[in-house]
Amino acid sequence: MRGNVIIIGGGFGGLSAGALLSKSGIPVTLFESDTVLGGRAKCIEKEGYIVDLGLHANRFGDDGPAARVLKMVGQAITFAHKKDRTSYVYQDGKLIKRPNAIEDFLQTELVPEESRQALLQTVFAMVAEDPADWYEKALLQFVEQHTQDEHVKRFFRLLGFTIIAPDIETASAGEVISFIKNAQMAKEPLAEPVGGAKQIIDKLESVIRSTGGEIKTGTRVERIELQDGKAIGVTAGGRLYTASAIVFTPPIQHLFQFIKKDYFSPDFVSYAENLEPTSGVSIDFGLRKPVADMEGNIICLDPVVLGSFPSNYDSTLAPAGKQLSTWLMVVPYAEAKKGPTLKNALDSLRDFIRNLYPTFFDNVEWERPLAYLILDGVHLKVGQTRKDRHSIQSPHVRNLFFVGDTAQGDGCSGDIAFDSATKAAPMIQDYLATARNQL
Ligand SMILES: Cc1cc2nc3c(=O)[nH]c(=O)nc-3n(C[C@H](O)[C@H](O)[C@H](O)COP(=O)(O)OP(=O)(O)OC[C@H]3O[C@@H](n4cnc5c(N)ncnc54)[C@H](O)[C@@H]3O)c2cc1C
């Protein structure tokens, strides 16, 4: 009998791990406390709109980590291809085109003409670097090695924002370099699934179910149970479910709600409790008539805002003649921890939108404001990069595996969840095979 696996959590990470394991013939049971799958990427249907949790950008399209997981389980993502990928940066009171390709850097109005050569040289220098040499150095350090031009430094905050780390004083240069290199190689740097993240979630769910895996939604895991230093299963709804291995996918900051700290080293406990996430607020809007026709995004660095009108490139997301718009404001975690800051950020975000589109709020049918202390599980600053984070297989409890956007996967945000699942699946298979041979 092959060992069975319990997966805690039905977000990108848990569903990916579940689909990969189930497809390879390993019996899985996935527990999700919510009644709906998707976790921080869950989607709702509301008055004819399909609404992701805020804007859910899918990086590198068919070459990205989400598409890779789906390919591994025999599926493909159907993308909504944009006709016009122009995105805009709101800077100095106006919307300025964001350069799409390196050639565009020599014309970009985001820096004055006299700074463009320095910008181009610094970007060229960046793509020639090996990310591994730069993970533990800040983006600002990289830029200052090439130029002291303040306009170029400001531009590099935009590159930091690609990994949700516009604070170039602390953002890891290696993580940004890795992102830029992947974006250069991808046919499409950003390509969204038709119907939003739900397409990915539904496909992963169907793979698990069709290969004999079990999904228990609305079932909260209360504890991970251990015996002689090994996880033996979980307690959920007052009942013990046993397993040969357990995959934990909520952010690692929540681990000790499930398992006693005593099983781990003090260094690991301190690391897991103090790993800094990104924080922020989002507002999704149903608009009774279109307010803007752009298919790209709007980015602002001061305040840090990302906006989009997703129904412009994917008409399935809003009823005919109406428009879906979604906005995100990133708030430093240290600030967000003080509760009122997040509420104030929602007001600032509304003011930002009103300033940009004075008639926007005349057209709002409904809005959904949300605040998150954990937006991305990890802020990709120096000391928290892929090489610094906890290993996928716990060194303390050998049959406990960590998957999700705080684990040791590549990329940023949801990409880490997908990538860590692809790394975890063979490790779990090896562990189960070895454990079986030892019997
Ligand atoms: C507003 C917003 C916008 C974002 N935008 C982007 C973006 O543009 N691009 C991008 O790549 N990423 C984005 N992200 C981040 C992305 O959503 C996450 O990185 C990703 O969804 C994390 O997946 P995960 O599986 O690691 O964790 P989660 O999605 O958090 O999954 C963990 C799951 O565990 C479940 N769980 C927790 N406790 C229990 C329990 N006791 N028992 C059972 N189940 C439990 C949770 O309900 C959850 O479903 C955004 C996030 C937010 C909030």
TrEMBL record:
Origin: domain of life: Bacteria
Matches recorded under Pfam families: Amino_oxidase
Record field: transmembrane: none
GO molecular function, one term: oxidoreductase activity
Positions of the Amine oxidase domain: 13-425
InterPro entries with a match to the protein in the record: Amino_oxidase, FAD/NAD-bd_sf
Protein family membership: Belongs to the carotenoid/retinoid oxidoreductase family.
Name the record gives this protein: NAD(P)/FAD-dependent oxidoreductase
Native organism: Candidatus Abyssobacteria bacterium SURF_17
